[in-house]
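S2.1 Query sequence (Armadillo repeat containing 6)
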Amino acid sequence: EQCRQEMAVRYLAGQKGAYPAVLAACRLACEEGCSLLKALRALSALLDGQPDFLDAPGQELLLRVLRERQDDGDLTLATIRCVRQASLKHEQNRQDLVKGGVLSLLVGAVVRHGDRADVVREACAGLRFMTFDDDIRVPFGHAHEHAKMIVTEHGGLRVLIEAAKAFPDDCSVLREICATLGRLSVRNEFCQEIVDLGGLNFMVALLADCIDHQDLVKQVMSAIQAIAGNDDVKDAIVNAGGTDLIVLAMTRHLGSPLVCEQSCAALCMLALRKPENCRVIMEGGGALAALQAMKMHPKEAGVQKQACMLIRNLVSHTRDFSQLILEMGAEDLIAEARAAHRTCEDVAKAALRDLGCQVELRELWTGQKGSLAR
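Output structure tokens follow.
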């Protein structure tokens, strides 16, 4: 209970030897059948924000509980929560747990406890955390390899898409499933497999049926953007009516910068290298919605950047759209984004250039001796 309060309390507990004490309590509970659940909850609270505490004996304990007590939903939930806490921003813990077989145990938990929303939600989060590359202490992680293992060795895509069918009205579970599917879409064939397994139809239906649920819409957009990395899937999304739903969702949640950013990013991906998709997006009001988002969120660099990239993709291969977009006021909005946000400099310049606007292009280096111009 103390550790749930704040990080300072967890740090003090760790300094005073709470981790080995809690771990010993977990071991004792495993051997004597006393309250293992309480001990695991204490361990989870201690690991929150402090994954360095978890050592090899602790990892083995978590894996042992997941293997030996897999029929107990409450224990599985508490243990997976420990795994998740220990994996955030800690690459070594992730790699050690994967070597110990945690991926099959997490996927197995989704199957075995497919009727429990809390377990499915936590197991999805656990799988997703294994695909993070967020530890600044290591030069590179195994995020891609872990995602590949989840899909190819453990059938993760099929399991997740099947699991969604049990929770048609639970937005929290569906949000986690979409977020995890997006993280697993790291290869061209994985994106196509999601479509073949019915994942695209699932996402489009979610967007249509749950369009008022802002957080869910954001995750669906992110997943659509991820699978649209495959050019064939781009066409499948457009043919399924995905572009109209994305524009509708962005318009519905125009006040949310996160939804606007993800919507523009999804449309941007659908437009990339696809002139026919650009036409569908234009006819569906995608450019106008993106510019409205820019007006609504001038201080949000993410919205401004993604909208600029979308405009650029819409006109880079189809210059006929340039005049229409300029008449919507694009030039001033893009110029304002370029001036206000350093991260928008290159994409804004590219958008203005492809729209046919006057852009000052500077040579940062001319081959002459001296430093780069700034």
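The mean pLDDT is 94. The CA atoms of residues 137 and 303 lie 30 Å apart.
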